[in-house]
Amino acid sequence: MIKFRAVTKRFPDGTEAVREFSLVIPCRKTTVFVGSSGCGKTTLLRMINRMVEPTSGDVAIDGESVLSKDPVALRRSIGYVMQNSGLLPHFTVLDNIATVLRLGGTKKREAHERARELLDTVGLDQNLAKRYPSQLSGGQQQRVGVARGLAADPNILLMDEPFGAVDPIVRADLQQELIRLQRELDKTVVFVTHDIDEAFLLGDQVVILGKGAQIIQVGSPSEILEAPANEFVASFIGAERGRRALHIKQTPNGRVLVDEQGRTQGVLRESPDDHASTPEGGE
Ligand SMILES: Nc1ncnc2c1ncn2[C@@H]1O[C@H](COP(=O)(O)OP(=O)(O)OP(=O)(O)O)[C@@H](O)[C@H]1O
């Protein structure tokens, strides 16, 4: 469990990126920070592994303050995946993945073996192992970035807009891979995005943030969709629009759900465990 306790970050130029932020991030779940540009998402993420130090307050992992830990050891024990992969251009794919292990003293041969395993884990072909980052597509680079984040088998994986710079089709592919990986690996994932659809797809817990990382609403995607905290959230999640604003239409063959434009999006069926007759997706 990661616990933020009244964390504030003020940068030397006076910018207050995060103000009095408190939150519990549960183990082995995916928590997504979502909010508009500059609201403090990256700053929050980086305070978990001490790439940024809080001005006041504390972040604790399993009850132990990160401030009491050696920052270098802490950073190596937590996976970090960033936008544009952050790969070292003069290192091969294998060496990029193996970096954290090598820094931790693992022998080259062993580190490369682990790196090869990780290529499989993230769905990359073994014949890419000796290539350089510039010889990969954007999606492949991001997969290498994820493999590198997983190299030291961390319990916690921090992901800062990892799929922000790839096209929508590759992005959807990477999102599905992450869902599969999470099912297999069971990590505590903290994921930053400004895309609410991505947040709802990946998050067990979604944290909608305003300026200064002020929490506007926190909950599961269903909780937020079913009861947006205010007008801002309703508008941010598009509760009144498109496929999020469905209504019921009676047809000769039963009831269907239609969107704003009247296009049918699904069929209403009675939930098998609910004979009290509230249809799934309900009224
Ligand atoms: N080193 C720094 N010095 C001064 N201000 C900073 C620094 N780093 C970030 N900030 C400011 O802190 C605020 C929060 O930045 P942060 O990068 O955490 O936001 P974000 O929500 O991740 O934004 P984005 O979605 O654009 O990446 C912004 O106003 C930013 O300009």
TrEMBL record:
<dbReference type="InterPro" id="IPR027417">
    <property type="entry name" value="P-loop_NTPase"/>
</dbReference>
<keyword id="KW-0813">Transport</keyword>
<dbReference type="InterPro" id="IPR017871">
    <property type="entry name" value="ABC_transporter-like_CS"/>
</dbReference>
<protein>
    <recommendedName>
        <fullName>ABC-type quaternary amine transporter</fullName>
        <ecNumber>7.6.2.9</ecNumber>
    </recommendedName>
</protein>
<comment type="similarity">
    <text>Belongs to the ABC transporter superfamily.</text>
</comment>
<dbReference type="GO" id="GO:0015418">
    <property type="term" value="F:ABC-type quaternary ammonium compound transporting activity"/>
</dbReference>
<dbReference type="InterPro" id="IPR003593">
    <property type="entry name" value="AAA+_ATPase"/>
</dbReference>
<dbReference type="Pfam" id="PF00005">
    <property type="entry name" value="ABC_tran"/>
</dbReference>
<dbReference type="InterPro" id="IPR003439">
    <property type="entry name" value="ABC_transporter-like_ATP-bd"/>
</dbReference>
<feature type="domain" description="ABC transporter">
    <location>
        <begin position="2"/>
        <end position="237"/>
    </location>
</feature>
<keyword id="KW-0067">ATP-binding</keyword>
<keyword id="KW-0547">Nucleotide-binding</keyword>
<dbReference type="GO" id="GO:0005524">
    <property type="term" value="F:ATP binding"/>
</dbReference>
<feature type="region of interest" description="Disordered">
    <location>
        <begin position="260"/>
        <end position="283"/>
    </location>
</feature>
<dbReference type="GO" id="GO:0016887">
    <property type="term" value="F:ATP hydrolysis activity"/>
</dbReference>
